[in-house]
Amino acid sequence: MRILVVGGGGREHAICWALRREDRDATIYCAPGNPGTAELGTNLPIAATDIDRIADAADAYGIDLTIIGPEAPLALGLADRLRAEGKLVFGPGRAGAQVEASKAFSKAVMEKAGVPTATSRTLTDLREALDYVAQHAEPLVVKASGLAAGKGAIVCATRAEARVAVQSMLGDGVFGEAGRVVVIEEFMPGEELSLLAITNGTGIVILPPAQDHKRLGEGDTGPNTGGMGAYSPVAIATPTLLARATREVLEPMLAELARQGAPYSGVLYAGLMIGPDDSIKVVEFNCRLGDPETQVVLPLVMSGLTECLWRVARGESPSPLAVAAGFAVTTVLAAKGYPDSPEKGAAITIPAALPEGVTVFHAGTSRDPDGTLRASGGRILTVTAVASTFALAQARSREASAMIKFDGKVYRRDIGWRESVRQTLGV
Ligand code: AMP
What is the pLDDT of residue 223? Predict the structure, then answer.
């Protein structure tokens, strides 16, 4: 069995790790991969967005199944291209990937499907957008419609802040094309939940629910990032809530996408806001596994993942997964200056002996010819601990994060703080 994983971040390292754990004999390629995936398979030096060369590599290496990790190649139509060549692929085509690549599209589908979400307006004209802001209640959220690496949503406490955000996107073009269309929406209070569903468009298997930490700073302060850490499972995601989310969000969304001629297959990631009144509203959809959610979700899947992905790639219903009873917490170690201008090049030391149950997933790393590991991106490593209790997993992820050294290391020591509060209060 020859599998190609497309991408080179922490998510793709975790995917390769999970595939390898299930099948010692699988032949795994990763494009472009990173020093972590190099230990599990063969890296191919091809950018994830180089559609032509990835298609050529799938041929040249006799790939049986391609799993596409990041949103960019999905939005570029890599899955369509490979399918057109008769290949098995896990991931949606370009049309389905629009759920993430265009917030304007996603909002329109949600509205048609009756999926609960924040009231919003999609705008392209600076004047109209500023007028809309002037009438909007505070707080409010201004979002670039296109792909902006998780940084295109600006939560604005005041209309004045929203004006600046609108001006920066529609006036100054700070997000380039991605910000030429903006979505302005009401602020939703509550607690966020990442629901990752594997689906062939009709059948749904939900992965263990996770919670990300979008803000850079402890206590959820500072700018939005790609994600600074995550944990799974999440106590508020009760079986009742998951059943409601399936009925109220996933099923109508999939049905509406099919009705619009964009039948969906792959991972449909619903970023949910669980309101103080237990309401479920969609913050956003993603067309792939989350990063860093994958680094806590997959370590909890003990078996059945590979089979499930194969089935969906063949168009069949996803098969059930065996999920461990434990808890996983991951802490992202980022470079100094992340997210705006991360410094590259710091040498990284990972001690051989880390706390029990800890796995270090590589994200933005590179290796010198002499073996030295270096920081080469914004988010450098994700440090996952799996343990029998949440508190142990949290403590071990934090402890291991402190033990790993590189100049300028930035990380949050409070990953999972909401779950800690719940445990302390016994709720
Ligand atoms: P998005 O790119 O849409 O996922 O937004 C990034 C982050 O901004 C989310 O994970 C939330 O923390 C926050 N956010 C986005 N939209 C809203 C909203 N309508 N109400 C409250 N928070 C939001």
Answer: 87
Task: Read off the tokens for 273.
Answer: 């806001």
In short, whether 149's Cβ falls inside 6 Å of ligand 1 is no
Neighbours of 371 (CB within 10 A): 7
Give φ, ψ of 168 to 5 degrees.
-65, -35
Residue 426's pLDDT is 80
Question: Shortest CA distance to 214 belongs to which of 206, 222, 204, 205?
Answer: 222
Q: Say which residues have a Cβ less than 8 Å from residue 37's Cβ, sequence separation at least 6.
A: 5, 8, 12, 13, 16, 28, 30, 43, 362
Average pLDDT, the chain: 96
CA of 147 to the centre of ligand 1 (A): 14
Ligand 1: does its nearest atom lie under 6 Å from the Cβ of 249?
no
Q: How many CB atoms lie within 10 A of CB 372?
A: 11
Count other C-beta atoms under 10 Å from residue 256's C-beta.
Answer: 19
174-227 tens-digit pLDDT: 898 898 999 999 999 999 999 999 999 999 999 999 999 999 999 999 988 899
Taking the C-alpha atoms of residue 332 and residue 28, their distance in angstroms, rounded to an integer, is 25
pLDDT at 417: 97
The two tokens of residue 136 are: 């909007």
Distance 254 CA to ligand 1 centre (A): 22
Distance separating alpha carbons of residues 421 and 416, to the nearest angstrom: 9
Does any ligand 1 atom lie closer than 6 A to the CB of residue 224? yes
Mean pLDDT on 271-291:
97
Q: What percent of the chain has pLDDT over 70?
A: 100
Q: Which atom of ligand 1 is nearest to the CA of 281?
A: 19
Task: Give the count of beta carbons closer than 10 Å to the beta carbon of residue 388.
Answer: 12
The answer to whether the CB of 153 is under 6 A from ligand 1 is: yes
Give the global pTM. 0.96
The ligand 1 atom at the shortest distance from the C-alpha of residue 120 is: 19
Quick check: CB of 283 below 6 Å from ligand 1?
A: yes
b/e sequence 149-170, b meaning 16+ C-beta within 10 Å: ebbbbbbbeebebbbbbbbbbb
Say yes or no: CB of residue 188 within 6 Å of ligand 1: yes
Give 215-261 pLDDT, tens digit per residue: 999 999 998 889 999 999 999 999 999 999 999 999 999 999 999 98
DSSP letter string, 274-316: E-TTS-EEEEEEESS--TTTHHHHGGGEEE-HHHHHHHHHTTP
pLDDT cut 90: percent of the chain above it: 93
Q: How far is the CA of 286 from the centre of ligand 1 (A)?
A: 12
